[in-house]
């Protein structure tokens, strides 16, 4: 599958239940990782390669076919993206940025009403919450990765 389709599938898989803003937020994080010029993601993105960001090992549960030794049916290979998912991928690849997630490099669902202040290992600090996802901007710890 090409990068656009993979991106649309990842958006659907990671944030399909988070509404339009939630999906745009996840897409913004992917593009922020693809465009950052320092730290771990700069080495991974090799100058803007979205596919490298999506396929980076251990970043997205949706990229795994098994988790904890069990089959993970919630993976990109089982997704059938709709036009909405493609539209969000296209929007992000064309430079779209969701306000409030503009500099975020990390997101996760804490399964809690509150977001932890820091993303694990303190590489990110809370920036915003959209629906069930918490979004984090990089800290100086990230810069050293």
Structure description:
- The protein has 145 residues and is α+β, with helices and mostly antiparallel strands.
- Helices cover 40% and strands 15% of the residues.
- It has helices spanning 3-15, 19-35, 39-45, 50-55, 83-93, 140-143; strands at residues 66-67, 70-71, 106-108, 118-119, 124-130, 133-138.
- Strands 3-6-5-4 form a four-stranded antiparallel beta sheet. A two-stranded antiparallel sheet has the order 1-2.
- β5 (124-130) and β6 form a beta hairpin.
- α1 (3-15) crosses α2, α1 (3-15) crosses α5 (83-93) and α2 runs parallel beside α5 (83-93).
- The longest helix has 17 residues, at 19-35.
Please trace the helix and strand order, writing H or E for each element: HHHHEEHEEEEH
> Given the helix and strand composition, which structural class is it?
alpha+beta
- The strand order across the widest sheet is 3-6-5-4
Helix content: 40-55%
Unreliable runs, pLDDT <50, ≥5 residues? none
CA gyration radius, whole angstroms: 14 Å
Could you tell me the strand content as a percent range? Answer: 15-25%
- Basic shape: globular
Largest sheet composition:
4 strands, antiparallel
Number of helices: 6
Strand tally is: 6
The average pLDDT value, as a whole number, equals: 94
Terminal residue distance: 30 Å
Describe what is shown at a glance.
This protein has helices at residues 3-15, 19-35, 39-45, 50-55, 83-93, 140-143, and strands spanning 66-67, 70-71, 106-108, 118-119, 124-130, 133-138. By secondary structure, it is α+β, with helices and mostly antiparallel strands.
